[in-house]
Every structure is written in structure tokens, then in C-alpha cells.
Write a structure and sequence with these properties.
The complex is a heterodimer of chains A (about 775) and B (about 270).
Chain A lengths: L1 H17 L4 E9 L10 E4 L2 E7 L5 E6 L2 E8 L6 E7 L3 E2 L2 E3 L4 H4 L10 H4 L5 E4 L1 H4 L11 H5 L5 E3 L7 E3 L7 E5 L2 E2 L4 E2 L4 E2 L6 E7 L13 E7 L8 E6 L3 E11 L3 E10 L1 H5 L5 H4 L2 E14 L4 E16 L3 E17 L4 E18 L6 E19 L4 E20 L9 E2 L3 E15 L4 E15 L2 E6 L5 E7 L4 E19 L2 E12 L1 E4 L10 E4 L7 E14 L4 E18 L15 E17 L4 E15 L9 E2 L6 E10 L4 E10 L3 E2 L4 E5 L2 E5 L6 E2 L3 E11 L7 E9 L7 E8 L7 E7 L5 E9 L1
Parallel strand pairs in A: 1-7, 1-8, 12-17
Antiparallel strand pairs in A: 1-4, 2-3, 2-5, 5-6, 9-16, 10-11, 12-13, 14-15, 16-17, 18-19, 18-51, 19-20, 20-21, 21-22, 22-23, 23-24, 24-25, 25-26, 26-27, 26-28, 28-29, 29-32, 30-31, 32-33, 33-36, 34-35, 36-37, 37-38, 38-39, 39-40, 39-41, 41-42, 42-47, 43-46, 44-45, 47-48, 48-51, 49-50
Chain B lengths: L1 H12 L6 E5 L10 E8 L3 E9 L16 E5 L5 E3 L1 E4 L2 E6 L6 E8 L2 E8 L6 E8 L8 E9 L7 E8 L2 E2 L4 E4 L7 E6 L11 E2 L3 E9 L1 H14 L21 E15 L3
Parallel strand pairs in B: 2-18
Antiparallel strand pairs in B: 2-3, 3-7, 4-5, 4-8, 6-7, 8-9, 10-11, 11-15, 11-16, 12-13, 12-14, 12-17, 17-18
The chains are: A mainly beta (about 775), B mainly beta (about 270).
Chain lengths: ~775, ~270
């Protein structure tokens, strides 16, 4: 690995020597009030229209220009623009603090031209979420939720009520890589999918890549949801929190050493179980049902060149049925990052990442007592380098070595139990990657980003590994020792995207990327469940592969106040996984014999109109798409609509700031019902009615639509103390979206059958939250 | 997981949320007239029955056209055959019994098409007892949880199917188990009877409960297990439903199950 790295470095250095003589301007961009670094703030040189850049994940920026007198312009949404005169004769380091706009000013459209990144950047298929906006959007029970909000973006589909899984461009839920400060979050939901694991108090920045995936990301087919936590205020101690309908939150942040280091701790706990105490039923009364999570982060800047960040997440769901049954599950992640600025052109970040997901299910009744556990643990070392070669070339390169350890299931019992103790062998694997990419400004009009990612996967011993024939019978069995490579897969993943600027306000872009996936979710349930099981690529399971091409047209209106985009994509998917009839996935050492493999395709058009600024802002997104799968054993090997297929998907979000105290918001969604299997006949066996089926996913649930409204009332301004009320009304007109449809004998007219739909959140649900900050 | 989710829904639904159920109209397709064969053959000498019908559209009443005039033949391992006689429309019977550890072949000829299935009668595992204890919920109303008890042999792979009758009415829930998790153990298994008025019913003090235990072979287990998984489709929709895998070739709806049978009956005490 290091040899490769050296070669790349040497190549870069020789490149620099022949590059034109320019000076580098670099520095860090921060929030003037909290000291938080600002991600994606833009820096431009007024005199050179083509020179500009954006700050990276750590607020660092670097650009270069020839000798001269310039004006630097720093902009960031919701912040005052700062301009600074500069006489450039040598490399300069300029650290800038931007001041957030006060409420009053925010309603006035900025006189400075807002940024036109969407037009110039070659990146396509990316959704950047603004946390301030997320906090305004009404959600069920008032729990602001990143995962719920991204489903309002075009190309992103909700898994349905009570399901925080989401589908991106026809991919399944497990094809999304969800990372929190670079650590993979395996089960991103609480309470079996009703809430996401991300407490929005602790979140600073959210990016969703749907296509044109940058080369530094990999490992999943559909998307990367990159979530970054707040660093913490390094100027003052602040406390903020909220008391809501079902949960309360508290966040404390402050400096460790003023202007040098800070910390942030944010926690959340639900108290649904308090309602349980009101129940008359003694079992419900004695039961528990809650989740909590804790985000913590600390950072310290040793000097201008070195900084360290520590961040962690810990969350747990607990569900107990008196003294009879108990289960808990949760994620924990930890990330240590070290930033080093080698020179004003070379920025380095080294990360050591830990991630763990586990569950425990216990039954305490003597005859059926058991304890079942499962665990997945990742260790990841990652090195990312950013090199500003010239104002025309920005390189990114790096590697990561990720070790998975999966303990698929273990059951422990005692003598009196009906069950045997057993455990399925632990599995180990390495997911390694090496990447390089170049953001190349070819000329005034054309920007190209091209990258290459080499992914290498190795399934490791020790253990006994079996091969199966298509019928699921064992054909071969081999035992490997510790450190033996059982199976390896190498894939080259090209990532290319280009933007051609037609004029000041419009551009066209195209991209192609290949992604591969070596860790697969095995579940035959549509909703996320704590017993989600992961399997790695192996002698039986090949890596899933996706090739995506996309094409887009982008147009800004009224000085970039309105952004419009139209993107079309086509995706080809290989080695997808489905399950045989009667597959049993839990605690099964032959689980790989229960799988069948197929292919898929997805295509669609996404239209997006967004108003980013002003008293009234929001967006309209519409997607017309298709997602299909093909498995030899299903529907005679024909393409059929995948579970995540929705033909039409419309979302409208509007936020209106009436005055300094009141802000109103609403969101509306309409989407085609999901593809489902309905009976096409019935018959009788064993004295009961059974249903016969002729086609998988041949029908549609009724279309879903829903209107939610919300309002925020800011408290009167106090010197130190600030408070606000958030009100929301979910499902305003009480639309009954069928959550499940069951077929059964009619209890009211015997001898006939009927279809029954069950809906949840089927009536308007109000909620109120009180937020405070001091 | 279905039960987990149900608890959560139940608990969430209590104070603040209304989950609601409603009968809906769906435009369902019509793929009917398919052959349905239900063939059971036990180790107890008596009337063995093969029922042949056809499936009907979802919207029709639950009356299924019998298939008359079929030729139904049972063959044992050494080639002895026995032809079943049609004793009622679509009902074919013979007064015989099977032996454990024997494989039987059933052929059904109708409309000049021959359907064949084989099934094996495994060793009989002794049903020790059936018991009840107060249920988790509604115990104060006399609701009970029903358990069956048996010693699973450790040297064999065993599959079981249970059928429950409450006050002489068959409970619709399918119960199919194997010994994956309890091979060689003294097994106490809770057979949960659903209690919503629309569906099945719970078991309460005073009820007369009969449980039949069948020892079945692997393909028949897969048939019932698949069915069991589908009926617990539950909130959110579990596996995509499909016709359970039949052991008939060419494919037909239904199954041929050769199995052991034994039953126990209790009157549930308060």
C-alpha cells in the first residue's frame, strides 16, 4: 500500500514543478460566534472569475493565484459575506470567521450574489441538507429527523410509515452507506424504524450522494449519507435542549481551551414508557420501551497545522415485557481524527474508526428461556489527502483498511430450557480501498472530476466454509486457519463526472460511476428490525455491482435565488440477493444456502426546483422512475417491479417567515403505492382458506399522500436566555395510508373473504416541543 | 419479530396514536381453475382421504368446485398399489394405514394429466402432554397460553406439525416446527392462538382443547413453514407471499403429507 502512495506523491511533486508559478492562499473558515468550522463555505477572488473553492469537511480551503492585488470574498448560507483585500506576492494563510446573519437580516435577500456551485461544480446527484431547514420541517411527534427529511428529496423514497429505511434511485435500503463522522451506522433506526438514530441537535452537516459518487466513498451501491457532528462551541459554554411530546434532549458545549479546543455532548431519551404506567394491564404497566442516545465530540487545535477530533455515538433501544421477555439493541461508534496540514497545498486527515452494532434477545420463562446475541464490529483506518496542485487541479487520494468481524448469532440456554445452546461461526473480512481523484478545471466552461477506486475484499479464516449448489445442498466443505484468505474480490471502480457551463446561469453535467458492495443485509422483512443480519461476500455471495450513468441540466434564476435541476439516470445492478421459499436467516450456519441471486435495473428522471433564500423558501421535487429486479425463480425470470419501485413521487416543502417570531412550514407528499403481491385466487386446504398467487409484486398499494404543517414561535429576546416553541400537525387531513393489507375470511359475512388495510398515524397527530438555549 | 412490532404498535397506539383497520376494495386478478390436491396419509389404519378441488376468484364465496372422476392411486416402497374410491364429489378415500420409515407415492390422474408426489413417514415422537398456564395478557379474564411437551430424539432430524381444535373448531393458525434449535431436548413449546375477534380465538378456562401432533418429512415441513411465515405477514408486510412449495409434480396447489398422528385432549382448568 505505502509503495503506491509514494508513487502517487512522487507523481504529484513532479507535476508541481512544471506547473505555472502561483501563490497559494489557504486557511480555515469558522463561525465567529461558536468557532465551529464551516463546511462548504465558498472562497472566490473577485478579480479572477474562475478562481474559487469551497472549504472541506474541516473548514480548510486552499486556492492559488498569480502575483497581484485581489479581493477575497467568503460566503456561506445564512452568514454575512466577508471581503478581504489581499496583496499576493507569496503564500498566504488567511483564517476567516463569518458571522451568522441576525434574524432580521435573514429575510432580506442578500445583495451579494449567492453561490452558484450548482452550475459550476462537476458534482451531480448530491443533496446537501441545511440543518436550519430540517429543524423547520414538520415531522411526526415533533422529533426532527434527518432520515425523514431526506426522503423529501427527489430520487429518495421513504420506506413507509414507521420505517426510517430509504431507497435511493431504485436501490434497496441496505445499499445506502450511512456514516456518522465516518463511522458506519448499521441500523440507523430506533423503535424498529419509527425514529432515526440521528439526534439533530448534534448534527452539523448532512450530504447525500445519489450518483456521481466521489472516489473517496465506496462500499455501497446506491448512496452515501455522510453525516457530520457538531464540533462544539470553542468560545462560550452553552446549554440547549428541548422538551417534546415523546422525548427530551439536552446539549452542552463549550471550550476546553478557548479558541483552541471545544467539546459537545448531546443526549436524548424517549419517555413513551411513562405512558405505560397509565395502563390498566399489569403486564404493560411493568414493561419498558424506550431508547436513548448520546453524541459526544471534542477537538483540540494544537496549532495552525495540527488538530485532533474525537467523536462518539452510543445509542440503545430497550424493550422489556415485565419479567418475561427483554431485548435491547444499539449502535456505538467512535472516531479519532488527526488533521495535519503538510503545506498550504497538502491537507491530510487520518482517521481511526470503530463501529459496533449488536442485539440481545432474552426470554426468561423457564421452559423457553434463552439468550440470543449477534454482533458486527468494524475497525477502520483511513487516510485522506487533498492536494491543491494548481488552481486547475485539485487532487484527492487515500486509502482505507476496514476489518469486519461478524458474529451472526449465538444462543445460550440453561439445562431447563427447550433450546440448545449454539453459535454460528464468527466471520472476518477486510474491505480495503485505494483511490485517487482529480477535480480538473479544463477551461472556463468545462470542469471534469475523474477518479478511480480500487476496492479489494478478502474473506478471512478461521472457520469452516461451505459451498452450495442452486438447490442449497452442500457441495464442498473446507476448513481454513486464522489469517487464511478464503475468497477475495478486486474491483476497479471508475468515477467520472463533467460539467459544461453553457452560460452564467446554466450548465449540463454527465457522470458515470461504478460501485461495489461486499457487505449485504440479509432480511426478509420490509421494515428495519433489530435482528438485521449482515453477511459478507464469500465463495457463495459475489459482490453486488452497480453501474450508473446520469445526465443533468441545471439552471439558476434570479441571481441564483432559484435553483432548478433535471437529472436522468440509468442504473444496472448485478448480483442482487433474494431468499428462497421458507428461508430461515436467523442463527443458521447454512444461511448462504438460502439465497438466490439476480440482477436489476433502475432508471428515472428527477426534477427539482429550490428557492434557497428569502422570507419564503422551500422546494418542489418530482421523480418519475422505475426499479426492477430479475431472478430466475421469480415470475418466470422476467423483470418485475422491485419493492422500492414508485412511479411518481412528489414532495413540496414550504417555509415562510412571517416576522421575527413566527415561522410557518408545511410539507406535502404524494407517491405511487409500493409494489406488492396480492392473491389472484383462493382455495381450501385443511379446512381453512388459503390464497393463491400468480405473480410477485404484480399489484400496487393505493397511492400515499399526506400534508404536514408546523410552526415555530421564537421567544422574546433575552440577553442570555433564548427559547422557542415548535408546533406540528402531522397528517393534517388524516389520510389512511395502508401500512399492511391482509386477506382473511370475513367475520361479518361467513363464507366470504375480504381485504383489510391497517393504517398507522391515520389521524392528524399534533405535537409540541419547547426548546431552550442559554 | 412480528410480535415485537406488535407490542410496540400496541404500546404506541395506547395514548396518542390511532391505528385503524378498514375493509377495502381491491381490483384483484383472476387466475383460477387451478388444481388443488390435499392428501393426508397416516400411520393409523383408518380412512385416508384425498380431496381434489379447484381454486376460485377472491370475490366469490368460499365454495370450491370438486374435481370428480379422478384416478387416485397410492403406491408403497415395494410397489403395492391401492386405488382410492370417490366417496363424495372430489373426495377419495381408502381404508388403509402406513408404516413409519416408509415412503409412499401418490398419483392423481385427472383431465389426462398425471400428478405425482412422494412423502415419507418419519419415526413417531411421543407427545408427552399438553398444558396451559395463565397468558401474559388478559390473564385475569382467564386467558391461557397452550404448550405441548415432548422429548425430541437427538439422533434424528425431526419436523412437526400441530393442529389445534378449540371446542371442536379448528384453529386456523399453522404450526410447523423442526428441531433446529432444540435437537435432543425435552421440548416445551408455546402454541400461540391469536385472539382478535376477526381472526382466530384465544384459549380460555373451560375450553376443551384437542391437539394433534404430526411427525412430517422435510418437504411437507417446508410447505407448512412457508405458509406459517406468510400468515404472520404482520404489520409492515413480511416476506412476499407466494404459493407454498408443493411436493406435487407437475406443480399443483396443495400437498401430499404422509405422517404419524397422535392427539391429546384437555379441558382447560381455571
Amino acid at each position: 500500500m505505502s509503495k503506491h502512495l509514494l508513487a502517487v506523491l512522487l507523481f504529484l511533486i513532479s507535476f508541481t514543478a512544471i506547473a505555472q508559478k502561483k501563490h497559494v492562499i489557504s486557511g480555515t473558515i469558522k463561525d465567529a460566534e461558536t468557532g465551529e468550522t464551516l463546511i462548504g463555505a465558498t472562497v472566490r477572488i473577485k478579480e479572477l472569475t474562475n478562481v474559487g473553492t469551497a472549504s472541506n469537511s474541516y473548514g480548510f480551503y486552499s486556492l492559488s493565484a498569480p502575483d497581484g492585488e485581489y479581493t477575497l470574498i467568503f460566503t456561506y448560507i445564512g452568514y454575512e459575506t466577508v471581503t478581504q483585500a489581499l496583496s499576493l506576492h507569496q503564500a498566504k494563510r488567511i483564517n476567516i470567521s463569518l458571522t451568522p446573519k441576525s434574524n432580521l437580516q435573514e429575510v432580506v435577500i442578500s445583495a451579494n450574489r449567492p453561490n452558484n456551485d450548482q452550475i459550476t461544480s462537476p458534482q451531480m446527484g448530491v443533496e446537501k441538507l441545511n440543518m436550519a431547514q430540517i429543524n423547520q420541517i414538520p415531522v411526526v411527534l415533533g422529533e426532527r429527523d434527518v432520515l425523514k427529511t431526506i426522503t423529501l428529496m427527489p430520487g429518495v423514497k421513504s420506506g413507509g410509515e414507521g420505517n426510517s429505511g430509504f431507497y435511493v434511485r431504485g436501490g434497496s435500503a441496505d445499499q445506502n452507506l450511512i456514516t456518522l463522522d465516518e463511522a458506519t451506522v448499521y441500523n440507523a433506526s430506533h423503535l424498529l424504524g419509527f425514529f432515526s438514530t440521528f439526534n439533530s441537535d448534534a448534527i452539523k452537516d448532512v450530504n447525500l450522494y445519489k450518483g456521481g459518487m466521489p472516489a473517496e466513498y465506496g462500499g455501497r451501491l446506491s448512496s452515501v449519507l455522510d453525516i457530520k457532528m457538531n464540533d462544539g462551541n470553542n468560545k462560550n459554554f452553552t446549554v440547549q435542549g428541548g422538551i417534546g411530546t415523546i422525548a427530551s434532549r439536552l446539549k452542552i458545549e463549550g471550550p476546553i481551551v478557548k479558541d483552541k479546543g471545544s467539546f459537545m455532548i448531546s443526549g436524548r431519551r424517549t419517555y413513551i414508557d411513562m405512558f405505560l404506567a397509565l395502563s390498566k394491564d399489569s403486564v404493560i404497566k411493568g414493561s419498558s420501551l424506550y431508547f436513548y442516545d448520546l453524541n459526544a465530540k471534542a477537538n483540540y487545535h494544537f496549532n495552525d497545522k495540527n488538530a485532533i477530533y474525537l467523536s462518539g455515538y452510543f445509542g440503545k433501544d430497550v424493550l422489556g415485557l415485565k419479567d418475561l421477555f427483554g431485548t435491547d439493541w444499539g449502535n456505538s461508534t467512535g472516531t479519532v481524527r488527526f488533521n495535519h496540514i503538510f503545506s498550504n497545498k497538502l491537507f491530510s486527515n487520518t482517521s481511526v474508526i470503530f463501529s459496533n452494532y449488536n442485539y440481545v434477545i432474552q426470554s426468561f420463562q423457564s421452559a423457553t428461556s434463552f439468550k440470543a446475541t449477534s454482533k458486527i464490529t468494524d475497525f477502520n483506518i483511513k487516510e485522506d489527502l487533498q492536494y491543491t496542485l494548481s488552481s486547475d487541479h485539485r487532487l484527492k487520494f487515500g486509502f482505507n483498511v476496514l476489518r469486519h468481524s461478524i458474529s451472526p448469532g449465538e444462543i445460550t440456554t440453561d439445562e431447563s430450557s427447550s433450546f440448545n445452546s449454539r453459535s454460528v461461526e464468527r466471520r472476518y473480512g477486510f474491505e480495503n480501498a485505494l483511490y485517487v481523484s482529480d477535480d480538473w478545471k479544463v477551461n472556463d466552461k468545462l470542469n471534469v472530476a475523474f477518479g478511480l477506486r480500487l476496492s479489494g475484499f478478502m474473506l478471512m479464516g478461521p472457520g469452516t466454509f461451505r459451498s452450495y449448489d442452486p438447490a442449497g445442498n452442500i457441495t464442498n466443505e473446507a476448513t481454513y486457519g486464522s489469517g487464511d484468505v478464503v475468497q477475495s474480490y478486486y474491483n476497479l471502480e471508475p468515477r467520472v463526472s463533467a460539467a459544461y457551463q453553457l452560460n452564467d446561469v446554466s450548465s449540463v453535467k454527465a457522470s458515470y460511476n461504478r460501485n461495489t458492495q461486499n457487505i449485504h443485509l440479509l432480511t426478509n422483512s420490509t421494515t428495519s428490525s433489530p435482528t438485521d443480519l449482515y453477511a459478507m461476500s464469500s465463495n457463495n455471495i459475489k459482490p453486488q455491482i452497480s453501474d450508473q450513468v446520469s445526465l443533468g441540466w441545471y439552471r439558476n434564476f434570479q441571481d441564483n435565488v432559484f435553483e432548478f435541476s433535471a437529472e436522468a439516470y440509468y442504473k444496472d445492478l448485478k448480483n442482487l440477493i433474494d431468499y428462497k421459499d421458507g428461508a430461515r436467516l436467523l442463527v443458521n450456519e447454512n444461511v448462504e444456502s438460502q439465497l438466490t441471486f439476480g440482477s436489476g435495473r433502475a432508471y428515472g428522471i428527477e426534477l427539482f426546483l429550490k428557492k434557497k433564500y428569502g422570507r419564503f423558501n422551500g422546494w418542489v421535487g418530482y421523480t418519475l422512475s422505475k426499479a426492477e429486479s430479475k431472478f430466475a425463480a421469480i415470475n418466470q425470470g422476467r423483470y418485475y417491479a422491485a419493492r422500492q419501485d414508485r412511479t411518481h413521487d412528489l414532495s413540496v416543502v414550504g417555509i415562510y417567515k412571517l416576522n421575527n417570531r413566527w415561522t410557518f412550514s408545511s410539507s406535502f407528499i404524494y407517491q405511487t403505492g409500493s409494489a406488492v403481491t396480492y392473491p389472484t385466487g383462493k382455495y381450501t386446504v385443511g379446512g381453512q382458506t388459503l390464497f393463491s398467487y400468480s405473480e410477485r409484486n404484480g399489484y400496487r398499494k393505493p397511492a400515499n399522500n399526506r400534508l404536514d404543517i408546523g410552526a415555530t414561535l421564537e421567544g422574546k429576546e433575552h440577553k442570555k436566555f433564548h427559547s422557542s416553541w415548535t408546533f406540528s400537525l402531522y397528517n393534517v387531513y388524516g389520510y389512511r395510508d395502508p401500512y399492511a393489507i391482509e386477506f382473511r375470511d370475513s367475520p361479518t359475512s361467513p363464507g366470504t373473504t375480504e381485504a383489510v388495510s391497517t393504517s398507522i398515524f391515520a389521524t392528524p397527530i399534533p405535537s409540541v416541543t419547547w426548546n431552550f438555549k442559554f | 419479530m412480528k410480535t415485537l412490532k406488535q407490542y410496540i404498535l400496541l404500546i404506541l397506539a395506547l395514548p396518542i396514536l390511532a391505528s385503524c383497520q378498514k375493509v377495502i376494495d381491491l381490483d384483484l386478478g383472476n387466475d383460477t381453475g387451478k388444481l388443488v390436491i390435499e392428501a393426508n396419509f397416516t400411520n393409523v389404519i383408518g380412512t385416508q382421504t384425498v380431496k381434489i378441488t379447484r381454486n376460485v376468484p377472491f370475490t366469490q364465496t368460499n365454495t370450491y368446485p370438486p374435481v370428480k372422476g379422478a384416478k387416485v392411486v397410492m403406491t408403497n416402497a415395494i410397489g403395492d398399489t391401492r386405488t382410492f374410491t370417490e366417496t363424495a364429489d372430489g373426495v377419495y378415500t381408502a381404508n388403509i394405514g402406513g408404516l413409519v420409515r416408509e415412503t409412499y407415492k401418490l398419483t392423481v390422474e385427472t383431465d389426462s394429466k398425471v400428478y405425482t408426489a412422494s412423502s415419507h413417514i418419519p419415526d413417531q415422537v411421543f407427545l408427552d402432554s399438553i398444558t396451559t398456564r395463565p397468558a401474559i395478557f388478559d390473564a385475569d379474564k382467564g386467558k391461557k397460553t397452550l404448550s405441548v411437551h415432548y422429548l425430541d430424539p437427538g439422533n434424528l432430524v425431526n419436523q412437526y406439525r400441530f393442529i389445534i381444535w378449540k371446542n371442536n373448531v379448528q384453529v386456523k393458525t399453522v404450526y410447523a416446527y423442526n428441531d433446529d434449535f432444540n435437537n435432543g431436548r425435552y421440548v416445551s413449546l408455546d402454541l400461540r392462538v391469536r385472539d382478535d375477534a376477526d381472526d382466530d380465538f384465544g384459549i380460555y378456562a373451560g375450553d376443551t382443547v384437542k391437539v394433534e401432533m404430526q411427525c412430517i418429512d422435510k418437504p411437507v415441513y417446508l410447505y407448512w413453514y412457508t405458509l406459517m411465515r406468510q400468515s404472520s405477514n404482520g404489520p409492515g408486510g413480511g416476506v412476499s407471499p407466494a404459493d407454498p412449495p408443493t411436493n406435487f409434480s407437475p406443480t399443483a396447489l396443495g400437498y401430499f403429507s404422509a405422517h404419524t398422528t397422535q392427539s391429546k385432549t384437555i379441558v382447560v382448568k381455571p
